[in-house]
Amino acid sequence: MCGIVGYIGNKDAFPILLKGLHRLEYRGYDSAGIALVSEERKNLNVYKTRGKVADLEHFVESKDISGTIGIAHTRWATHGEPNDINAHPHYSQSENIALIHNGIIENYAVLKEELLRKGYTFQSATDTEVLVQFIEYVKDSNHTDLATAVHLALSQIVGAYAIAIIEKNNPDFLIAARKSSPLVVGIGEDEFFLASDATPIVEYTNKVIYLDDEEIAVIRREEGLKITSIENVEKTPHIQELSMNLSQLEKGGYPHFMLKEIFEQPRTLLDCMSGRINVEGNNVVLSGIFDNQEKFRKAKRIVICACGTSWHAGTIGMYLMEEYCRIPVVVEYSSEFRYRKPVIYPDDIVIAISQSGETADTLAAVELAKSHGAFIYGICNVVGASIPRATHSGSYTHAGPEIGVASTKAFTAQVTVLTLMTLVIGKVRGTISEENYLKIAQELLKVPAKMEQTLQLNEQIKEFSKIFTYAKNFIYLGRGYNYPLALEGALKLKEISYIHAEGYPAAEMKHGPIALIDAEMPVVVIAIKRGMYEKVVSNIQEIKARKGKVIAIITEGDEIVKQVSDYYIEIPDTEECLVPLVASIPLQLLAYHIAVTKGQDVDQPRNLAKSVTVE
Ligand code: F6R
Questions:
Q1: CA distances from 218 to 4, 166, 226, 547 (A)
Q2: Cβ–Cβ under 8 Å, residues 45 and 3
Q3: Helix, strand, or coil (residue 478)
Q4: What is the mean pLDDT of residues 332-338?
Q5: Region 568-592: what's the mean pLDDT?
Q6: Chain-centroid distance, C-alpha 41
Q7: Is the minimum distance from the CB of 591 to ligand 1 under 6 angstroms?
Q8: Does ligand 1 have an atom closer than 6 angstroms to the CB of 25?
């Protein structure tokens, strides 16, 4: 939700900031802006416009973009519609200070009223403009410098923020701060970078510091970096090395990141399993569980908290853990859990699942569960993000940067980690038989090859997806492990093609949704020869009897479903609990090709952002 980037050093800031914005565009793309201090002309130039980063690039043509210090922003609107004025950076009243912000200032209305009474005027409808005006007010009324004013002002701010600020008369000074929104400082040779995540930084330096909540980074050209708390207590920075590489951030010849990420899944699953499962498939090790075996042995309940696609992965985790670990599992939407006054016991294990590791609701759910004494385990993709830092233990998914806004490879990596966890917890608790342990572990090792085989169906899926661009609605059906997958298939379609889609447990169809079936209605059915196969075949018959169009995902060679469905996609057979991993591929490809055929922007669908750092 909004991407921020900053630079101070001896190079031209503009190209670095612009490239950084392109990298962060997945976080928001309704408007973009940049502020630069031109040392030569002693100006603080702010350029901003509605639209994407490419529009900003066009907008600044023939403008003064000089300067070796600057800040830039790509926005996902919260307060104030997406337009030129509400775009960041925002000036202070005197236009001496410019600020960019990711987050929400909750007490902005009270502060704005106070400032209006003192004669301040506002151009935009944003909470961010209130913050920059407030900082200037504190600076002027206390006759102090900007660094002190930022400390004083932030002590009165309620809400979430990652901010970066520059000043017209101070081209050697950049200040940034964070609370509940991510901020990374990159340390180069006589230069410093700021960004919402490490992707804009990685090509310049691999040395980074992930700022903690309520930390302020003060960067001066001569003295370098100093990190303090809001109360101005100096902190010792913890410098970390990035393991990301640049090719992970490029499209690599694919037309969209989403397609690249779909095709990366055999590789990401191998990376996810690497060092965790031996080649014989008879030993699975997850250090995060191994180091806390007693907790997992004694736990009475597992609570999984997540949002969106991660919630779907968590629901597959529930099916896995209840079957093989014999422990009650509940899956919660983080946003509901955190406000519901849930009953949480100290011997609960709470698993937080988040690709970005920054989702505000999941982070709040983690903090709530922690305050009740539960043991918190994180499953995250972005290394060093807020959620993995807030948990007691966890496992990274190692899927690499996911840039397409619709989650694909992170989902299958989350399901893989949950499968590995199930095997380890099942063993620790003595609930999984040796036979099942071996069967699942050994079959899991074969899944990347089966995904590879399924990806060969890309052209076939592309061809018949053209038939469905007419549709206004879709239904997705599955049972057991494939019910959460039906939900995920429907979410993929709706978020990138803007076609309304509902996922349902197949047997629930007759309790209502069947009324929607007519000759226009495409119904995707995951009808694999495992689990409740015969019952799903009956559901297909019920749809056909009402003239619905059935697109079935079937097990290779299944002649029965071939005959009763209108279209079918054959995937290789695998263990029932592993079907969602292989069957994800055709669902992702179907959504992708329908959206592309409809001419939608699949990597940056409207209204969405990759990292949801607001409630
Ligand atoms: C859908 C999608 C979202 C995210 C959700 C949670 O394709 O990407 O539904 O899954 O916003 O995000 P994370 O996993 O980062 O917590």
A1: 16, 11, 5, 66
A2: no
A3: strand
A4: 95
A5: 98
A6: 41
A7: no
A8: no
Give, for ligand 1, the residue of 359, 386, 497, 587 to mutate: max count of ligand atoms closer than 8 Å to Cβ. 359
State percent of the chain over pLDDT 70. Answer: 100
State if pTM tops 0.90: no
Q: Which two tokens stand for residue 558?
A: 């299944």
The whole-chain average pLDDT of the chain stands at: 94
Using CA atoms, how far apart are residues 211 and 215, in angstroms rounded to an integer? 6
In this predicted structure, what is the pLDDT of residue 588? 98
pLDDT band at 165 (very low <50, low <70, confident <90, very high): very high
Q: Is the pLDDT of residue 143 over 80?
A: yes
* Rounded distance from Cα 598 to ligand 1 centre (Å): 23
User: Average pLDDT, stretch 536-557?
Assistant: 94
Tokens for 458, please give them. Answer: 């890309």
Give one word for 517, left, alpha or beta, with left for phi > 0 and alpha for psi -120 to 50.
Answer: beta
* Distance between CA atoms of residues 88 and 92, nearest Å: 12
Nearest CA to 318 out of 425, 438, 422, 193 is that of 422
Give the pLDDT score at 478: 97
- From CA 289, how far away is CA 502, in angstroms rounded? 36
CB-based contact 493:598 (threshold 8 Å): no
Q: Which of 2, 272, 325, 577 is catalytic?
A: 2
Cα distance between residue 265 and residue 268, in whole Å: 5
Q: Tell whether ligand 1 has an atom less than 6 A from the beta carbon of residue 86.
A: no
Report the pLDDT value the prediction gives residue 42, as an integer from 0 to 100: 81
C-alpha of 300 from chain center? 30
Structure tokens at 428: 């620790």
Q: pLDDT tens digit string along 500-533?
A: 999 999 999 889 888 999 999 999 999 999 989 9
Cis peptide before 89 (omega within 30 of 0): yes
494 is catalytic: no
Mean pLDDT of 313-317: 98
Residue 365, both tokens: 């759910």
Ligand 1 midpoint to CA 156 (Å): 32
Edge-to-edge strands, sheet with 173-179: 90-91, 97-105, 159-167, 173-179, 215-220, 224-229, 234-235
Q: How confident is the model over 429-470, as pLDDT tens digits?
A: 999 999 999 999 999 999 999 999 999 999 999 998 999 989
- Residue 556 and residue 251: Cα distance in Å, rounded? 32
What residue has token string 């447990």? Answer: 505
Task: Say how many Å lie between the CA of residue 73 and the centre of ligand 1.
Answer: 22
Q: Which of 69, 66, 73 is nearest to 99 (CA)?
A: 73
- What is the structure's pLDDT at 82? 86
Asked about 610 being catalytic, the answer comes back as yes
User: Does residue 407 line the site of ligand 1, with CB under 6 A?
Assistant: yes
Residue 613 pLDDT exceeds 90: no
Cα separation values, 62 from 47, 59, 91, Å: 12, 9, 22
Tell me the C-alpha distance between 54 and 278, whole Å. Answer: 47
